[in-house]
Input
Amino acid sequence: MGSDKIGANGIELVYEAFGDEADPPLLLVMGLGVGWDDRFCRALAERGLWVIRFDNRDVGESTHLRAAARPDLGAALIGDTSSAAYRLEDMADDAARLLDALGTESAHVVGASMGGMIAQVLAIRHPERVRSLTSIMSTVGPTVGPPRPEAVEVLLAPPARTRGEYEQRIVDNWRIIGSPGFSFDEDRLRQLARRSWDAGYDGDGVARQLLAILASGDRSEALGAVEVPTVVIHGDSDPLIQPEGARATAQAIAGAEFAMVEGMGHDLPVELYERFSDRLAGLVQRAEAGRSDGELSGTTGRSGGRG
Output
């Protein structure tokens, strides 16, 4: 299976799909950088899901907005976000246009970190496109569950200049923000770092994404309108987005399930792939059953009438 590229929302997005297209679609939305391990995608596909992962704008092989104004994170941190090239709303629209290009009316949407924020915005802006929502290690806004001081240093470190420097930085950063309750696989991290660099590392692109988060404000009130089955997952040891962000997300969405994972930081430990895959497959099954019930009854309740 190889990657493919489609035009969406005025840019090009690179995506890959796992599993059978006839199965319920599951759209994976990552945060900063390149993510979603092949093993996790395959585990989801083995549970009867058509899994779609893609590179956000400004990362990997998707379009990089290098002609945009240089992002000024220093100004943004004191409230001036005028240098933002785009907002999370634009990134959510990218995801919606990707579904259009794939001929998919709606999908079960899973987002991690910034990807969780994008997934939330997608459910707010395009509710008919979202069958269920899973928000992992994310928050309702940049001031809710803010990073600890040691994690701020990770976010604001200057861009790496070489592949080797980037690889070592990823290893060092994950010692700070990773999961203390699970194994630290340095070889795997180095492999992921090399993949991310080779796919098109762009320090300014990461800064533009951070600025999009800061420019997009708080979603607490808007999330009150989300009516799809929702699961919120977070680690109790996350220093980058502290657990308050997840609690606020779960509180904002009526009926959301909340799962706090002991020993998990701001990453997805390999040891949790099976557990998370089971949880997501169960959510999809419940949401699909609700859609079927709604179609049979002619109603548009919590799960029915979506897409």
